[in-house]
Amino acid sequence: MSMVDDGTGRGNDAVDEPGWEVDPDDESGAAVVAAVGRQIKTWREAAGLRAGELGTLLGYGEDLIYKVEGGSRIPRPEFMDAVDVAVGAGGKLAAMKPDIAEVRYPKKIRELAKLEAAAVELSAYGNHNIHGLLQTEEYARALFEMRRPAFPHDDVERLVAARMARQSIFSRSPAPELSFVQEEVTLRRHLGGRMVWRRQLEHLLEVSELRHVEIQVMPTSRDEHAGMGGEMQVLKFKDGSAVGRSEGDFGSRPVSDPKHLRIIELRCGIIRAQALNPRESRAFIEQVLGET
Q1: How large is the average pLDDT for residues 184-200?
Q2: Positions of the region Disordered (predicted)?
Protein backbone atom coordinates (compact mmCIF):
# COMPACT_ATOMS: atom_id res chain seq x y z
CA MET A 1 0.00 0.00 0.00
CA SER A 2 1.67 3.22 -1.14
CA MET A 3 1.86 6.14 1.25
CA VAL A 4 1.88 9.79 0.20
CA ASP A 5 4.48 12.16 1.60
CA ASP A 6 2.99 13.50 4.84
CA GLY A 7 6.00 15.37 6.18
CA THR A 8 7.54 12.39 7.97
CA GLY A 9 10.04 11.72 5.24
CA ARG A 10 8.18 8.79 3.71
CA GLY A 11 8.11 8.70 -0.04
CA ASN A 12 5.34 7.54 -2.31
CA ASP A 13 6.88 4.08 -2.54
CA ALA A 14 7.17 3.55 1.22
CA VAL A 15 4.87 1.02 2.86
CA ASP A 16 3.73 0.64 6.43
CA GLU A 17 2.14 -2.79 6.56
CA PRO A 18 4.61 -5.68 7.08
CA GLY A 19 3.79 -6.51 10.69
CA TRP A 20 1.12 -6.99 13.33
CA GLU A 21 -0.07 -4.80 16.16
CA VAL A 22 1.01 -5.90 19.63
CA ASP A 23 -1.75 -7.18 21.92
CA PRO A 24 -1.68 -4.82 24.93
CA ASP A 25 -2.86 -7.65 27.19
CA ASP A 26 -0.02 -9.93 26.13
CA GLU A 27 2.71 -8.83 28.54
CA SER A 28 5.21 -11.59 27.74
CA GLY A 29 4.75 -11.12 24.00
CA ALA A 30 5.08 -7.36 24.28
CA ALA A 31 8.34 -7.80 26.20
CA VAL A 32 9.81 -9.94 23.41
CA VAL A 33 8.77 -7.46 20.71
CA ALA A 34 10.20 -4.56 22.73
CA ALA A 35 13.54 -6.39 23.10
CA VAL A 36 13.70 -7.04 19.36
CA GLY A 37 12.87 -3.40 18.66
CA ARG A 38 15.71 -2.21 20.90
CA GLN A 39 18.15 -4.48 19.09
CA ILE A 40 17.07 -3.11 15.71
CA LYS A 41 17.47 0.47 16.93
CA THR A 42 20.93 -0.30 18.34
CA TRP A 43 22.11 -1.82 15.07
CA ARG A 44 20.59 1.03 13.04
CA GLU A 45 22.35 3.69 15.10
CA ALA A 46 25.62 1.74 14.96
CA ALA A 47 25.30 1.77 11.18
CA GLY A 48 24.89 5.53 11.23
CA LEU A 49 21.36 5.47 9.80
CA ARG A 50 18.34 7.56 10.71
CA ALA A 51 14.96 5.86 10.91
CA GLY A 52 13.84 7.53 7.69
CA GLU A 53 17.02 6.44 5.90
CA LEU A 54 16.57 2.85 6.99
CA GLY A 55 12.96 2.99 5.86
CA THR A 56 14.06 4.24 2.45
CA LEU A 57 16.60 1.40 2.13
CA LEU A 58 13.97 -1.18 3.02
CA GLY A 59 11.10 0.40 1.09
CA TYR A 60 9.07 0.83 4.27
CA GLY A 61 7.65 3.95 5.90
CA GLU A 62 9.55 5.78 8.62
CA ASP A 63 6.58 5.34 10.92
CA LEU A 64 6.92 1.57 10.64
CA ILE A 65 10.58 1.74 11.67
CA TYR A 66 9.64 3.76 14.74
CA LYS A 67 6.78 1.39 15.60
CA VAL A 68 9.01 -1.68 15.35
CA GLU A 69 11.82 -0.07 17.33
CA GLY A 70 9.34 1.16 19.92
CA GLY A 71 7.86 -2.31 20.40
CA SER A 72 4.36 -1.46 19.17
CA ARG A 73 4.60 -3.43 15.92
CA ILE A 74 5.55 -7.09 15.46
CA PRO A 75 7.82 -7.30 12.40
CA ARG A 76 7.29 -9.97 9.78
CA PRO A 77 10.11 -12.43 8.95
CA GLU A 78 10.92 -10.72 5.64
CA PHE A 79 11.38 -7.41 7.47
CA MET A 80 13.89 -9.01 9.84
CA ASP A 81 15.85 -10.44 6.92
CA ALA A 82 15.92 -7.09 5.14
CA VAL A 83 16.89 -5.00 8.16
CA ASP A 84 19.62 -7.48 9.07
CA VAL A 85 21.28 -6.92 5.69
CA ALA A 86 20.68 -3.14 5.71
CA VAL A 87 22.40 -2.54 9.05
CA GLY A 88 25.09 -5.20 8.61
CA ALA A 89 24.00 -7.32 11.58
CA GLY A 90 25.53 -10.44 10.06
CA GLY A 91 22.52 -12.64 10.74
CA LYS A 92 22.08 -11.61 14.37
CA LEU A 93 18.76 -9.83 13.77
CA ALA A 94 17.50 -12.48 11.37
CA ALA A 95 18.27 -15.06 14.05
CA MET A 96 15.55 -13.46 16.21
CA LYS A 97 12.78 -14.56 13.82
CA PRO A 98 11.87 -17.67 15.88
CA ASP A 99 11.38 -15.47 18.95
CA ILE A 100 9.04 -13.24 16.99
CA ALA A 101 7.19 -16.20 15.48
CA GLU A 102 6.46 -17.35 19.02
CA VAL A 103 4.54 -14.17 19.84
CA ARG A 104 3.07 -12.99 16.57
CA TYR A 105 -0.17 -14.91 17.14
CA PRO A 106 -2.77 -13.98 19.78
CA LYS A 107 -1.89 -15.17 23.30
CA LYS A 108 -4.92 -17.45 23.61
CA ILE A 109 -4.02 -19.24 20.37
CA ARG A 110 -0.36 -19.58 21.42
CA GLU A 111 -1.42 -21.23 24.65
CA LEU A 112 -3.68 -23.65 22.77
CA ALA A 113 -0.91 -24.45 20.29
CA LYS A 114 1.50 -25.23 23.13
CA LEU A 115 -0.99 -27.65 24.67
CA GLU A 116 -1.58 -29.35 21.33
CA ALA A 117 2.17 -29.56 20.68
CA ALA A 118 2.68 -31.37 23.99
CA ALA A 119 -0.35 -33.68 23.75
CA VAL A 120 0.00 -37.41 23.12
CA GLU A 121 -3.74 -37.81 22.62
CA LEU A 122 -6.49 -35.47 21.44
CA SER A 123 -10.21 -36.16 21.29
CA ALA A 124 -12.58 -33.53 19.89
CA TYR A 125 -16.22 -33.12 18.94
CA GLY A 126 -17.34 -30.29 16.65
CA ASN A 127 -20.92 -29.27 15.90
CA HIS A 128 -20.75 -25.86 14.19
CA ASN A 129 -17.86 -26.09 11.73
CA ILE A 130 -14.89 -28.27 10.88
CA HIS A 131 -12.36 -28.52 13.73
CA GLY A 132 -9.53 -26.00 13.36
CA LEU A 133 -6.86 -28.70 13.04
CA LEU A 134 -8.76 -30.18 10.08
CA GLN A 135 -9.44 -26.96 8.19
CA THR A 136 -7.93 -25.95 4.88
CA GLU A 137 -6.48 -22.46 4.64
CA GLU A 138 -9.34 -21.36 2.36
CA TYR A 139 -11.98 -22.70 4.73
CA ALA A 140 -10.32 -21.07 7.76
CA ARG A 141 -10.10 -17.73 5.97
CA ALA A 142 -13.78 -17.93 5.00
CA LEU A 143 -14.73 -18.54 8.63
CA PHE A 144 -12.76 -15.56 9.91
CA GLU A 145 -14.01 -13.30 7.12
CA MET A 146 -17.66 -14.03 7.91
CA ARG A 147 -17.30 -13.11 11.60
CA ARG A 148 -19.33 -10.12 12.78
CA PRO A 149 -18.32 -7.53 13.76
CA ALA A 150 -15.89 -7.96 10.89
CA PHE A 151 -12.21 -8.56 11.59
CA PRO A 152 -9.74 -6.19 9.90
CA HIS A 153 -7.96 -7.84 6.96
CA ASP A 154 -4.66 -7.93 8.86
CA ASP A 155 -6.30 -9.74 11.78
CA VAL A 156 -7.85 -12.29 9.43
CA GLU A 157 -4.48 -13.14 7.92
CA ARG A 158 -2.87 -13.32 11.35
CA LEU A 159 -5.54 -15.72 12.63
CA VAL A 160 -5.39 -17.89 9.52
CA ALA A 161 -1.60 -18.15 9.80
CA ALA A 162 -1.92 -19.14 13.45
CA ARG A 163 -4.47 -21.82 12.66
CA MET A 164 -2.34 -23.27 9.87
CA ALA A 165 0.74 -23.29 12.13
CA ARG A 166 -1.10 -25.47 14.65
CA GLN A 167 -1.47 -28.18 12.04
CA SER A 168 2.18 -29.14 12.47
CA ILE A 169 0.74 -31.56 15.03
CA PHE A 170 0.06 -33.99 12.18
CA SER A 171 3.75 -34.30 11.28
CA ARG A 172 5.07 -34.67 14.82
CA SER A 173 7.22 -37.66 15.73
CA PRO A 174 6.22 -39.63 17.66
CA ALA A 175 2.74 -38.94 16.35
CA PRO A 176 -0.05 -38.19 18.82
CA GLU A 177 -3.34 -40.08 18.60
CA LEU A 178 -5.95 -37.73 17.15
CA SER A 179 -9.68 -38.44 17.21
CA PHE A 180 -12.33 -36.13 15.74
CA VAL A 181 -16.12 -36.44 15.61
CA GLN A 182 -17.80 -34.04 13.21
CA GLU A 183 -21.51 -33.32 13.15
CA GLU A 184 -23.03 -34.15 9.76
CA VAL A 185 -24.15 -30.55 9.24
CA THR A 186 -20.52 -29.37 9.32
CA LEU A 187 -19.90 -31.48 6.22
CA ARG A 188 -22.92 -30.18 4.33
CA ARG A 189 -22.70 -26.46 5.05
CA HIS A 190 -21.07 -24.73 2.03
CA LEU A 191 -18.97 -22.28 4.03
CA GLY A 192 -16.77 -20.25 1.72
CA GLY A 193 -18.60 -21.39 -1.40
CA ARG A 194 -18.91 -24.68 -3.23
CA MET A 195 -15.28 -25.04 -4.36
CA VAL A 196 -13.86 -24.18 -0.92
CA TRP A 197 -16.30 -26.66 0.58
CA ARG A 198 -15.34 -29.40 -1.89
CA ARG A 199 -11.63 -28.94 -1.22
CA GLN A 200 -12.36 -29.10 2.52
CA LEU A 201 -14.10 -32.44 2.12
CA GLU A 202 -11.21 -33.73 0.01
CA HIS A 203 -8.81 -32.60 2.72
CA LEU A 204 -10.76 -34.53 5.35
CA LEU A 205 -10.41 -37.67 3.26
CA GLU A 206 -6.66 -37.11 2.91
CA VAL A 207 -6.16 -36.56 6.64
CA SER A 208 -8.29 -39.60 7.48
CA GLU A 209 -5.71 -41.79 5.72
CA LEU A 210 -3.09 -40.99 8.39
CA ARG A 211 -2.68 -43.96 10.72
CA HIS A 212 -2.79 -41.87 13.88
CA VAL A 213 -5.95 -39.95 12.90
CA GLU A 214 -9.56 -41.06 13.23
CA ILE A 215 -12.39 -38.95 11.80
CA GLN A 216 -15.96 -39.93 12.61
CA VAL A 217 -19.28 -38.47 11.52
CA MET A 218 -22.29 -38.03 13.79
CA PRO A 219 -25.36 -38.42 11.54
CA THR A 220 -28.22 -35.98 12.02
CA SER A 221 -30.61 -38.94 12.05
CA ARG A 222 -29.33 -40.28 15.40
CA ASP A 223 -32.09 -40.65 18.02
CA GLU A 224 -29.62 -40.25 20.91
CA HIS A 225 -26.75 -37.82 21.13
CA ALA A 226 -24.45 -37.14 24.11
CA GLY A 227 -23.07 -33.96 22.60
CA MET A 228 -26.12 -31.72 22.54
CA GLY A 229 -24.45 -29.33 24.98
CA GLY A 230 -21.93 -28.21 22.37
CA GLU A 231 -18.37 -28.79 21.21
CA MET A 232 -15.76 -30.35 23.49
CA GLN A 233 -12.15 -31.42 23.50
CA VAL A 234 -9.74 -33.39 25.70
CA LEU A 235 -5.93 -33.24 25.51
CA LYS A 236 -3.81 -35.84 27.30
CA PHE A 237 -0.09 -35.57 28.03
CA LYS A 238 2.70 -38.10 28.56
CA ASP A 239 2.91 -37.42 32.31
CA GLY A 240 -0.67 -38.63 32.70
CA SER A 241 -2.21 -35.18 33.11
CA ALA A 242 -4.98 -33.84 30.89
CA VAL A 243 -6.91 -30.71 30.00
CA GLY A 244 -10.47 -30.58 28.74
CA ARG A 245 -13.03 -28.04 27.66
CA SER A 246 -16.76 -28.43 27.14
CA GLU A 247 -18.90 -25.63 25.74
CA GLY A 248 -21.38 -24.42 28.33
CA ASP A 249 -19.82 -26.39 31.21
CA PHE A 250 -17.38 -25.12 33.86
CA GLY A 251 -17.61 -21.62 32.42
CA SER A 252 -16.52 -22.96 29.01
CA ARG A 253 -12.95 -22.69 30.31
CA PRO A 254 -10.19 -25.33 30.07
CA VAL A 255 -10.25 -27.57 33.16
CA SER A 256 -7.81 -30.08 34.64
CA ASP A 257 -9.74 -31.12 37.74
CA PRO A 258 -10.17 -34.95 37.58
CA LYS A 259 -13.89 -34.72 38.44
CA HIS A 260 -14.55 -32.29 35.59
CA LEU A 261 -12.33 -34.19 33.16
CA ARG A 262 -14.16 -37.44 33.90
CA ILE A 263 -17.43 -35.85 32.78
CA ILE A 264 -15.97 -34.51 29.53
CA GLU A 265 -14.15 -37.78 28.76
CA LEU A 266 -17.34 -39.74 29.42
CA ARG A 267 -19.27 -37.63 26.94
CA CYS A 268 -16.52 -37.84 24.32
CA GLY A 269 -16.48 -41.63 24.66
CA ILE A 270 -20.25 -41.92 24.26
CA ILE A 271 -20.21 -39.56 21.28
CA ARG A 272 -17.59 -41.73 19.54
CA ALA A 273 -19.71 -44.81 20.21
CA GLN A 274 -22.85 -43.13 18.84
CA ALA A 275 -21.14 -41.83 15.68
CA LEU A 276 -20.34 -43.77 12.53
CA ASN A 277 -17.09 -45.69 12.82
CA PRO A 278 -14.06 -44.34 10.90
CA ARG A 279 -14.60 -46.58 7.85
CA GLU A 280 -18.30 -45.74 7.67
CA SER A 281 -17.48 -42.07 8.17
CA ARG A 282 -15.01 -42.05 5.29
CA ALA A 283 -17.67 -43.58 3.04
CA PHE A 284 -20.14 -40.95 4.27
CA ILE A 285 -17.77 -38.08 3.44
CA GLU A 286 -17.14 -39.57 -0.01
CA GLN A 287 -20.90 -39.76 -0.53
CA VAL A 288 -21.39 -36.10 0.45
CA LEU A 289 -18.54 -35.11 -1.86
CA GLY A 290 -20.07 -37.11 -4.70
CA GLU A 291 -23.38 -35.30 -4.28
CA THR A 292 -21.82 -31.94 -5.22
Answers
A1: 96
A2: 1-27
